[in-house]
Amino acid sequence: MFTGIVEEIGTIRGISKGPDSARLHILGSKVLQDTRIGDSIAVNGVCLTATTFGEGVFVADVMAETLAKTNLRDLRPGSQVNLERALRLGDRLGGHMVSGHVDGVGTIAGKEKHDIATLITIQAPPQVMKYIIKKGSIAIDGTSLTVVDFEGDKFQVSLIPHTAHATVLGNKKIGDSVNLESDVLGKYIERLLQGRQEEERPGSKMNLEFLATNGFL
User: Fold this and answer.
1) What is the DSSP letter of 98?
2) What pLDDT is stored for residue 89 in this prediction?
3) Angle between helices 205-213 and 184-200 in degrees, nearest 10
4) SS3 letters for 150-197?
5) Which of 67-71, 112-116, 148-152, 189-193 is least confident?
């Protein structure tokens, strides 16, 4: 698990591509402190496993499924990425609970300055939009942000100057892709409601047990 508070911006030093996979060589410094082989590091919000280290570089393997469903497929040598180490028990939770499992890839549809803030509009797929609520949490390229507003297939977030400077979002342009992860709390609530509806449906296992217990069957 992660918090969505990006620790540093890393740089892709190199990419070794297989038939359907890739191996990323990533330059970093802070995320390598106290990190061991096998530890998890979020790269643009995607939970990856550090497999080797060497002089400010760590290597992570990326499977075909991850390449197909995240913007890691767009990375090139020199690309910048958000980096965050996994949450430790006892750490401050400055953002929100982020799993590192991307729900969909969105596109930056608008970007404008409002005083000190940068308002970003993102076009997102339905599997993400259904969890969007005003003032709710969303992870964008691994950055924990608050939804300002939404309509149709778009939502807006606002970056303070620190976030724009400390994450890759500050340099993103209209048309660029972003990894999106919805707040896990909304997913659990949805699943609980689905389970309740199934239990209350005529002919469900629970209803049949109730009828049998009370002598109606």
Assistant:
1) B
2) 82
3) 40
4) EECCEEEEEECHHHHHHCHHHHCCCCCEEEEEECHHHHHHHHHHHHHH
5) 189-193
